[in-house]
Amino acid sequence: MWRYPVIPNRLAHEASPYLRQHANNPVDWHPWSAGSLARARLEDRPIFLSVGYSACHWCHVMEHESFENTEIALVLNTHFVSIKVDREERPDVDHLYMTALLLLNRGQGGWPMSVFLTPDMRPFYAGTYFPPTDRDGHTGFIRLVTTLGEWWRTRRADIEQQANDLATAVRQRLLPDLVPPRKTAAAFPETRLLEAAAANLKKTNDPVHGGFGSAPKFPHPMDLRLLFRLSDRFADRSLSAMAVHSLRMMARGGIHDHLGGGFARYSTDNQWLVPHFEKMLYDNGLLAMAYLEGWQVSGDASLRQAALGIFNWLSREMTHPQGGLYSALDADSEGVEGKYYVWALTEIREVLGIEAGDRFARVYGCHEYGNWEGANIPNLPRPLADAARREGMDEITLLAEMDKCRSLLLARRETRVRPGLDDKVLASWNALAVGSLAMGARVLGLPDLAEKAVAAAHFVLTHMRGEGGRLFRAWSAHSGPRLLAYLEDHACWIDALVELFQTTGDSRWVDEALELSEAMRYFFLDGTSGVFFSTGSDHEALLCRSIDSQDAATPSGNGAAALGLARLAEVTGRNDLRELALGVVNWHETWMDQHPLASGQMLLALDWLSGPVESCVITGHSPPGPGRLFLPRGLVVMYPPQPNPHPVSLLEGKPSTSESEPMLFHCLGKSCADPVVGAKAVAVWLAERIIRQGNQA
């Protein structure tokens, strides 16, 4: 058979690592651009749109099976304009056509996403992964593209009708009637929505293995954090116990990288044993916050350790020299999913010696024949305390030995071929990680985490800005900043900057958050309904603008906006920001009622706005840190002496100089107690409050 010569296609010079992965395919790929879309219109050819991301295992499989296949490439190049999109760079394109896929496919979606469009971008057929030829009842990709190419010529009217109907359905789904909320900004939805959310989370909770629902299982960090707040609001400790149990089981499972720290994206089984091995920045930023709060409410040191593991992984593998944070590590290495992370028992013994190796294997569930496809994914089938009893050791001694074993195995693992690194810097994902680093610095008393958070914030807010301060979505060494930022980028950064302010007491982060809130209002707000569009008024026009209400692996744009604005309002005393947040939450009242399990971030905003909000400001030089102090609806601000102080509203009347003693200022709603003066008195107040808080799981 004649074969295409291996000549790099148009994707060779793209900034996205995912697009560049396809540069040597015989498919005549185009990036998503005005020129590519114009070509489809000019030549009156349908578009084959393939959407994925660099760490996606099945994206790699479909590339190898179909996009490297010259027979399939010939059909695509003859009948279609083929466009490849990195979903992480273009969440608007991804969300638009994923909606079409979900409508066509009875709610089932995923990546790679394969969508066929008319030249004017209306979808008419969609799916996910296709095998190259017919297999196990699934249509082969070669037959699909051949058939659709023929139908474009012979059944054009049918395709046009399908495209019209589907485009109308997509618009109705993404852009509901933008009517004003039923309630004024002075009111807010009843807390019955929070009660309903608690009931739904209880119903879907897995009481044995933790988490929600059945396989595949995702971590749901927003819902876990919501449970801690609902537990406090309704004095129901079973809710916080559910969250802590889920965190413990995930930390014990194979979804957790026990050697290098951090978590994979999701588990393919109920027990959290077998992940898809890609490790994403956003998951780990969100999970670090959940683990920190889990430690605060439970006192379980294993949860603290899981958060520290995430931070160590971020520092070791995911940080640009100038501070920005990379996006993801691939699931595959050397073309094999999980190869970097799994072990043969013989190699464990080779690295650790037979005695220590066999003990590690017993503790971490490794066997001669493997626990997954003939290899071993390290996991903790039982808690370390139980393992210590079975080994006839005390827990501290076993923990020290396992720490040494993990270090030795990590060193060996680092000699292997590494998974691919997606080294682009994404604004919203960096915000999620910065928020967790800032929280970790404050809660754990680790100043180096604050330094990392500040460096990443400085990188994004300096290197990813355009004229007039407009934020960009992405940055890479190949291109610098590119793509206008979306709602989620602005919203997540507002909340992250509030976290950074709490840790540093530096009001410049509040100023940055206020600037982003103004940009968010200007570019994204719908003046009629009071909610935010996902794309800005200056973005490229697609089939329609959308309202992002639904949590996925990351918080919904409107949920993140509502919570960030509400917290920023508390810091600044700006009631207009609070009213803006209330407007967003009010508009989503029906959505939260109908979709509580997809509304975790919006429900967090509702919980905050329902109050009462608590604040604790700790001033002075080297004061005690908050440690396990958990304020479900509150701010804990460390306010050390500042070189050029210009206090925001929350800090007014709270002195912090190099000469002043540490002081603690506590308020609940509008009621403030007398300040606590002196380092010892502050430490006693914190200790007593944590004792009253108790261990909730």
- Helix count equals 25
Structural class: alpha+beta
Measured between the Cα atoms of the first and last residue, the distance is: 65 Å
Low-confidence parts = none
Overall description:
The model has no long low-confidence stretch (mean pLDDT 95). α17 runs parallel beside α19. The chain contains 25 helices and 20 strands. Among the domains are: 165 residues, Glutaredoxin (3-Layer(aba) Sandwich), CATH 3.40.30.10; 75 residues, no CATH class; 80 residues, no CATH class. The termini are far apart. The strands form six sheets. A five-stranded mixed beta sheet has the order 1-3-2-4-5, with helices on both faces. Strands 16, 17, 18, 19 and 20 form a five-stranded mixed beta sheet that branches. By secondary structure, the protein is α+β, with helices and mostly antiparallel strands. The radius of gyration is 26 Å and the shape is globular.
